[in-house]
Amino acid sequence: MSSFLNEIRDGFESVIDKTEEYGKIGKIKVDVAGLNRQLDKYYADLGKATFEAVSEKQDVNENEHIQDVIGKIKECQNDIANKQAEIAEIKREKELEREKRAEERQKEKQAREDQKKTTQTQSGDVEDDSDASDIEDATLVDEEKDEKK
């Protein structure tokens, strides 16, 4: 019964863990989507400013507005890269947490099995899994059936 409850506990932990992970990642993805929309606006502004500068035969490298927009684009691209790195870090941390929990569960399971074996050995209830023991049991059952007839 405790094995069943452990499986239920593990399932709940997994659901909670994934929900937490996806919640954090989802929030960051919303931020990235907003940054991408802002980036599109900057590109449109850059295109318009470049067109105007070229139309007026200005040097685009000396145009303050164009340089300002280019700076905003680079900043936005860096912010997006940082957000994507955050997502990768969250995934890595959660995977490490899951591996650690799996190791702990395995240790708990092994400890329970060791305790069960110790208890069985102390009480003399150790079952022999050998084929010879099974054959002897089957022979005894057959002999009991013969005696009843």
Number of strands: 0
| Low-confidence runs of at least 5 consecutive residues | none
Structural class by sheet pairing and helices: mainly alpha
Global mean pLDDT: 85
- This entry's quaternary arrangement is single chain
Largest sheet: none
SSE pattern, N- to C-terminal? HHH
Q: So how many helices?
A: 3
Helix content: over 70%
Q: What fraction of the residues are assigned to beta strands by DSSP?
A: under 5%
Euclidean distance between termini CA atoms: 40 Å
Radius of gyration: 34 Å
Shape: rod-shaped
Describe the structure using short key phrases.
rod-shaped, 149 residues, single chain, 3 helices, mainly alpha
Would you mind describing this structure in some detail?
The chain is an all-alpha fold. It is 89% helix and 0% strand. The protein has helices at residues 2-55, 64-123, 131-148. The longest helix has 60 residues, at 64-123. It is rod-shaped, with a radius of gyration of 34 Å.
In summary, what is this structure?
The protein has 149 residues and is mainly α. The chain contains 3 helices and no strands.
